[in-house]
Amino acid sequence: xIIDIFARIGHHPLHEFRQTSAELIAVMDKHGINKTxxxxxxxxxxxxNNDLVAKVAAQHPDKLTGFMGxxxxxDNSLEEVERAVSLGLKGIMVDVEFHPxxxxxxxxxxxxxxxxxxxxxxxxxxxxxxxxxxxxxxYFNGLDQLAFKFPDVRLIVNQYWPRIGTLMREHxxxxxxxxxxxxxxxxxxxxxxxxxxxxxxxTESPVNHPALFIKDLRLKKIPDVYRxxxxxxxAERLFSDLFN
Length: 244
What we know:
The protein is of the alpha/beta class. It has helices spanning 21-31, 46-59, 77-86, 106-119, 137-149, 164-170, 191-194, 210-219, 224-238; strands spanning 3-11, 18-19, 35-40, 64-69, 91-95, 123-126, 155-158, 174-177, 199-200. The protein has one domain: Metal-dependent hydrolases (TIM Barrel, Alpha-Beta Barrel). It has 9 helices and 9 strands. Helix 3 (77-86) packs parallel to helix 4 (106-119). The radius of gyration is 16 Å and the shape is globular. The relative contact order is 0.15.
């Protein structure tokens, strides 16, 4: 079982990254990916992109689980969550670089956690360039506060999040995805520090190619039982409600 918890369809508003649902399905079939959590690219056209994800997820329910994009600072963010849930979307992606919320706008992200708690929506906080942050403290403090205030909300972050080992020891609702940077697979983060049970394959396709990440995981010098957990068993367990 291979599950990719972070891939995208559509096109990036600032870069040349783009992917259709047909292209994504073809990659999944070629490389043995059983299930993908499909997300929109960051955009100002929130509703339009959510409609696209909902449509393709409904067309391929055995292969795709749809996540909505939300701008927490938008006046209609809570209404958009309700609308997207009614379309069948089962999680939230917030691009915290495209829609900055850590720092003075954190209260708006906290407000968004309430419907996430009510509907059981996991929240992926996308931070493509977090490894080059010049001010990491707002991200560390913000995630610490979110995880503490909303312990029932699953918060999914890149393994390069500032002081992630400390945060994961404090909060059991933080989950890592294995994203790297532009087809450079990331290291498996400090297994002795965070343990193997909350790390999931997340490629951020098409920014990164899933084949490279799957091959990299298969070649890592880690116990095979851990490898299977990261490739799919963890996601199957941690997000079992999203497969219904």
